[in-house]
Every structure is written in structure tokens, then in C-alpha cells.
Design goal:
about 240 residues; globular; three-stranded antiparallel beta sheet; binds 2'-O-acetyl adenosine-5-diphosphoribose; 10 helices; alpha/beta
Length: about 240
Amino acid sequence: MLPLIGMNIQPISPADYRTIVFFTGAGMSAESGVPTYRGRGGIWAKYNWEEVACEEAFRRNPEKVLEFHALRRQQLADCRPHRGHAVIASLEERHAHVAVVTQNIDGLHQLAGSRRVIELHGSLWRLRCSREGTIYHLSPREKSPVRCQCGAWLRPDIIWFGDCLDPEVVQRATEIIGGCDLLIAVGTSAVVWPAAGFPQLARDQGAHCIKINPEATEMSSLYHVSHQGPAGEVLPALFPAATTA
Ligand code: OAD
């Protein structure tokens, strides 16, 4: 079946599905004012990840790497979830069988009220001791410490280029995505692995797969339906009942 491109949106009845998974990427947060990674205005167009987002850079110049992430937290402190985040959170509240698997590290799904959130790439709101692994939780506008009580540098508890994903997190994501019957991929370029393989897993297991993205992306043919539009408009149109109080 060819994917249906366009904004001719057929509302979805959540009750028709056993388990619904929203698989989200940076585009999910774009309308909240968080820059995406790739493309015009993207973070990797402005910064070189080899200098700010890998273990080697951290070993070479921890201050520079920490400063980059502190700046990201500072920018995020002013960002609020949008209507699309609210729709997902409201669906979870009304239907127990809804979960989010996200590549995002910004915490906006949780801020909107989603509780079943699997963060594949960690969170900007946690720091981890580079020696002992102790976790520190941060709140917005809090000045982040740079060293653990043991004296070692604290690094963001996120996945940098070259890092391996936490196997336990991958296991949980694999279970929930492998068992879902509706997967909705929102705002991801799907070029970063292993996360990019999750929509295919859902499809292989027989799930109905929908994509929301204003641009055509790689692997578009994987999806049964493609809605070419922004998350903040397409999600409320797909789930009109979830937008009412
Ligand atoms: P990208 O920046 O690669 O892709 C963002 C996608 O969002 C693009 O396909 C855009 O077309 C789309 N987009 C833009 N605005 C949108 C909107 N309003 N609504 C819906 N979609 C929109 O971000 P990711 O795919 O998340 O890794 O990138 C994957 C990983 O690469 C990130 O998790 C990060 C990065 O390096 C780590 O931090 C480990």
C-alpha cells in the first residue's frame, strides 16, 4: 500500500487499539521552541558534535562540554509543552494502553503530564558521576554542579555519539514497541540507530504505523499513513476527543 501524503486526516479511535506507542524525536518539541538537530537552524549545524557531544570531547575539555549542555538547559527552562504533547498526555490518562518512547532529552512529555515515557537517549535534567555513576537530578534554573561529591566530573546522563544505549531501556522499549498495534512516529529524521529501527520492529510485528512530519523522511514507505504537517496540528486532528477537557 502506498503511504497517504497530505493533511486529509482521518481521526483515530484509541479504543480500536490494544497498545498505542508514540515514538518521538526532536520535531515533537520544535513547536515548543526547542531546536531540532538536523536541517536549517539545527543544533548540529551550529555546533560540532565532536567538540561537545562525545566522550572524547568530554575527556579533552569537560568545561566546554558542560557549558554546552548547561546552555541547552537554560534555553529549555523557557520552553513549554504544546498542544501535541497535551494530546498524548490526555490519551494516556483516558486509555491505560498508551506509552511514549522518545529520543528527546528535554523532559517535555513529562512536563505535559505523560507518565509512561521511555527516554532512549537519557535526560538533560540528570547528571551522572563519571567515576561512580551516582545520579543527580536537576530542576530548571538551578545552577548545575560540575563535580560529584567524590570530586569526579559530572556528565549529562544522556547518550552521546559513540555511547551505547542502556540495555535495560532498550529492552523495555523493544517489549512495548514489539507488542503495540499502533505506532505513531512524530518528528524524527530516523537516521540515528538503534532508535531508528523501532518503527520497523513495530511494522514487522503487525502494527499499524503512522508518521507525522512536515518533511518527507527516509523510510517513509515503512508507514501505512504519512501526515505531512507539524505535530501541534496533526495530533489534535488525529485525536479530537483528547483535546476536550
Ligand atoms: P532530527 O533533528 O534529526 O530530526 C527532526 C525531525 O523533525 C525532522 O525530520 C524534521 O522534519 C521534523 N520536524 C521539524 N519540525 C517538526 C514539527 N513541528 N512537527 C513534526 N516534525 C517536525 O531529530 P531526531 O530524529 O530526534 O541524539 O534525531 C535523533 C537523534 O540525533 C537525537 O536524539 C540526538 C541527535 O543527535 C542524541 O542526542 C543521542
